[in-house]
Amino acid sequence: MPEHQPYKDNTYTDCLIIPIVENEEIITQIPEKYEMLHPTITTLVETKDFEAKALQQATVYEKNSGHKRILLIGVGKKEDLTIEAWKKTIGTAVRTAQDKKSTIITIHFPEWATEHFKKNHSITESVIAAHIATYSFDTHKDKEAETTKVMTIYWDHQNPADKELWELSTQNAVHIAESVNLARHLGNTPPSEMTPASLAKEAEELGKTFPKLSVNVLDRTQIEEHGMGCLIGVSQGSILEPKFIIMEHMNGAQEEKPIVFVGKGITFDSGGLSLKPDPYIRDMKFDMLGAATVIGIMRAVAALNIKQNIVGLVPTCENMPSGSSYRPDDILRAMNGKTVLIQNTDAEGRLILADALSYASRYTPKHVIDFATLTGACVVALGNERSGLFTKDDAMSTALQNAATQSGEKLWRLPLGQEYSEAMKCEVADVKNIGGVGGPRYAGASTAAAFLEYFTDYPWTHIDLSCSSYGEKGKPWIRGGANGFGVQTVITYLQSV
User: Fold this and answer.
1) What is the pLDDT of residue 441?
2) Which residues pair with 17 in a beta bridge?
3) Per-residue confidence (pLDDT) for residue 168, from 0 to 100
4) Spatial distance between the Cα atoms of 466 and 107, rounded to a whole number of angstroms
5) Residue-level pLDDT at 79
6) Closest Cα partner for 377 from 291, 451, 466?
7) Three-class SS of residue 322?
8) Does the first or last residue of the chain, that is N or C, have fewer Cβ atoms within 10 Å of its Cβ?
9) The CATH classification of domain 3-159, taken from the options 3.50.50.60, 3.60.40.10, 3.40.50.460, 3.40.220.10
């Protein structure tokens, strides 16, 4: 991943990126030292080939500039500019430069950006956006087809007095971005490689890297001893052993109740005996994105040395069809003693979360937040750029939505309530694993959340991440596959409490 350095005059780079605001004179936004660009840019403006509309780009070549190429990137109207839009601008420009084989990039950081946003916030978010944009999953490509690796990104911010602030903000930004990219990498790895054991090993490696991060992994025997009948039930169709990952960062006061994060870790979801049809069985390597998010969060927490007690719990297994698979009509017993009638083996994520949420009770937590690619119903409701948030805690809902906005991510609160809880009740067991309000397929995201609530006895929030894959082609500012949604939102939230 790239290094981030302050720009020094006369440093030659492969690409200079200059953000330009719409509806303001473009020439005046070009740094004085690049006045040799004025004739070319004047022509671009006169021909209306570049008007600085959001994400519009123009490439200029001027050998006397000291850079191989100059990329102008439109910001759009300043009054419409949010931190999300700014990050998309920076990410898009970096991706374009990278696609042009640039290994050393300079980004001009305009003075107005520090005025438009809080200074340290704009620095952090800019570095995060640039760093995340450079990531690509090339592990299985020919060398010639791999994306160009960006080695260094220089930031031309023109204010020596800000040096200390820039260094601290950049360091923190890289920790966050690396944690987001870790979550993406775990999600993008093929399921033949990212098995429950592999996921556990990734967590254990973080424990070796960060001394204050304690990692313990329970095997099948230990999972059984804890009475996690739902995790065992879902896993029994696979030849791969389930794991239960416990990550603890106890860096707050001894008496402080921890915040616990729980992540669904189905490393491949075939649907079990309720087999998914094509094309829905594709991309089911992403069914462990909740686990990836939690592991990414715990990496960031440890790297930033956050002074709080924080725990990450990840139940992980495969959901596969075989002669030993759990069946529709089976009844499983969760760790907290509640029984669950299985009506569909493809509603498996909520089952392994039931055991993890039950386990979380032993911490007497301040709050528990779970992340899961839980329902297709949430994607139908919200699309693929906004994740669903479920909680009865109004203050937590507000805090997380504010943190998401500050991070350039999006959450949307969806309902919990009696009608959803009633829909999950069952005559032959305590609850069933699927239900609907007014029809079997109605309100699927909310009934799934209501199911999870049966396994909580503490303040709790559920985030449905089913919207958290950008898909094969990605977006101009981020490459395809897993997007690491939620990692930065949580870190922003933790830094505010």
Assistant:
1) 86
2) 71, 107
3) 77
4) 34
5) 92
6) 466
7) coil
8) C
9) 3.40.220.10
- Model pTM above 0.85: yes
Two tokens, residue 106:
């300079």
Quote the mean pLDDT of the chain. 95
Q: How far apart are CA 355 and CA 333, in angstroms?
A: 9
Q: Around Cβ 206, how many Cβ atoms within 10 Å?
A: 21
Structure tokens at 383: 């699309």
pLDDT at 160: 52
Given a cut of 90, is residue 226 above it in pLDDT?
yes
Question: Smallest Cα–Cα separation from 131: which of 494, 496, 398, 487?
Answer: 487
| Host H or E run for residue 16 | strand 15-21
H, E, C per residue of 31-88 = CHHHHHHHHHHHHHHHCCCCCCCCCCEEEECCHHHCECCEEEEEEECHHHCCHHHHHH
Q: At what angle do helices 487-494 and 394-407 cross, to 10 degrees?
A: 120
Measured over the CA atoms of residue 84, residue 133, residue 114 and residue 171, the dihedral's sign is positive
Catalytic positions, written as ranges: 276, 350
180-494 CATH fold? Aminopeptidase (3.40.630)
What does the block give as tokens for 363?
A: 């911490």
| Tokens at 56, concatenated | 């519009």
Cβ density class 94-113: b for 16+ within 10 Å, e for less: bbbbbeeebebbbbbbbebb
CB 139 within 8 A of CB 58: no
